[in-house]
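Open question from group meeting: does this chain pack into something compact, or does most of it stay loose? Before anyone orders reagents, we agreed to write out a predicted structure and look at it together. Recording both the input and the output here so the notebook holds the full record.
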Amino acid sequence: MSIAKKMMDTLKKDIRPYRTNVANSSYMHLIGLFPLQIVTTKEQHVAALKVIEKLITFINEGNIRDEGIKIYLMTLSELVADYERKNYSTPSVSETDMLAYLMELHGLNQKDLAAEIGGQSIVSKILNGERKLNLRQIKALSDRFKISPEVFIGPISEFEPNKIKNTKNSKPRSKSAKTS
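Structure tokens returned:
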């Protein structure tokens, strides 16, 4: 028995409780057509995007109830996202531009967001750059649009450490001495 065969037999025994039913024919056919592997070249990236596009089109046409295809698509999408994170920079978008974009995308006007943000005049000030979104507003907008708050505040890694006030080195306030 070859070493590879022994390893496969051992794995089958060890992972039996963790196996899912995605090993159906469509999942395995997709693996055969375009194996799930780390995307390392531009050519692999382009090919993977084409596969993703075809699968999304197929799913959106209502032709799918196949969990194997969905799992394959999610996994391939993650592999592509990893490649893109490593090879492409994402331009920063201001919270004002993002809010304006989301409003346009959803066909909303300032009045439509008044409840989430605190009034139409505040929405106007935010869109004009006269005011920043606060955390409550960011949470409300994130909930409304079903998006991550990072869309408005950016990932934590983007914050510059020198702009954050260092409270460890600040002197404690002295208590006033009682005079008798």
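Observations to bring back to the group:
The chain has two domains: 3-87, 95-155.
The chain has nine helices and no strands.
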